[in-house]
Each structure stands twice: as C-alpha cells, then as structure tokens.
UniProtKB/TrEMBL annotation:
PANTHER family: 2'-DEOXYNUCLEOSIDE 5'-PHOSPHATE N-HYDROLASE 1
Annotated protein name in UniProt: Putative 2'-deoxynucleoside 5'-phosphate N-hydrolase 1
Any one Gene Ontology BP term: deoxyribonucleoside monophosphate catabolic process
Keywords linked to the UniProt accession: Glycosidase, Hydrolase, Nucleotide metabolism, Transferase
Gene3D superfamilies given in the database record: 3.40.50.450
Subunit structure: Monomer and homodimer.
InterPro entries: 2'-dNMP_N-hydrolase, DNPH1, Nucleoside_deoxyribTrfase
Positions bound to substrate: 19, 84, 108-110
C-alpha cells in the first residue's frame, strides 16, 4: 500500500518530531511516499537539490496520484496540507486527518465538515494508533 503523508512545512514546523513518529508507524503498513515531510531540514535539502517550488509541486502531485491512501496531520494549519487534502478527496483517495483538539487553532470546517475526510481527534500517538491502523486496514 502506498501512503501519502501530509504535514505542515511552511505553515510551521513545531510538530516535526510527531510527523517522524507517525511516518514510522505508517511504514509498518506500507510505503510512505512523502517521508521528506519529517525531515528537519526539508527546505534546505530541497534547495540543495536545486528544486524550485514548481518542482516540489509537480513531484508532490505525482506522489499524490500514486497514493492508495493518505494521512494528514492537520493540527498546524497549512495551506499546502489543505490543498493536498482537497486534491486527494477530488480523486477519491481515502484521507485520514489527525487533529489534536488542544491546539491553538480550531480545525477548519472544510476538513471537519467533510464526510470524505476521516477525522481522528487525539492527544498522543499511542492513543490514536489503533484507530489509525484500523483506517489503514479498512482501505487495504
Ligand atoms: O518544501 C515543501 N515540500 C513539500 O513537499 N510540501 C508539501 C508537503 C506537505 O504535506 C505540504 C506542506 O505545505 P506548507 O508548506 O504550505 O505547510 O506541502 C510543501 C513544501 C513547502 O511549501
């Protein structure tokens, strides 16, 4: 199973360690196409590789088309993550959105109000792991 993981980059990086833990868990169930989202130096790495914003967009859209399923950590509001979710939903790709309710920002109605996004509210990764794994199993 190919998994698209989405998480904030330019929206803010304070959850980057959580993204790494989530990707480790997801890797037990399939191939994560977007491991770079958990790279602490993602933007520096992309710049060193000579990637323009257009290159990043094209590469991510190619991975998005390849994905069987998607998991998005939506606690930090991110334009890119919201855009990716919209494109995934339009393609009919199952999307799970992970949101921590104690966050500074209320989750957008465009995500929580969307039946096509399976929103899981949680406090810590161990507490949501079983539900996340059930989401993955149900779309295998
Ligand atoms: O450098 C990048 N590389 C990249 O893959 N993305 C994609 C993957 C993330 O799920 C999402 C983050 O969007 P944003 O940067 O607007 O928070 O966009 C976004 C950026 C920067 O916008």
């Amino acid at each position: 199973m190919k998994i698209y993981f989405a998480g904030s980059i330019r929206g803010g990086r304070s959850d980057v360690d959580l993204y790494a833990d989530l990707i480790d868990l997801l890797e037990e169930h399939g191939t994560v196409l977007t491991e770079h989202v958990a790279d602490e130096d993602v933007e520096e790495s992309e710049a060193e590789a000579g990637l323009t914003d257009a290159d990043i967009y094209e590469q991510d859209m190619a991975w998005l088309r390849e994905a069987d399923v998607a998991v998005a950590e939506v606690t930090i509001p991110s334009l890119g993550v919201g855009y990716e979710i919209g494109r995934l939903v339009a393609r009919g790709t199952p999307v799970c959105g992970l949101y921590r309710p104690d966050a500074d920002h209320e989750l957008s109605a465009m995500i929580r109000g969307n039946d096509a996004v399976d929103v899981l509210e949680y406090e810590s990764l161990p507490g949501v792991a079983a539900q996340l794994e059930e989401f993955l199993r149900s779309h295998r």
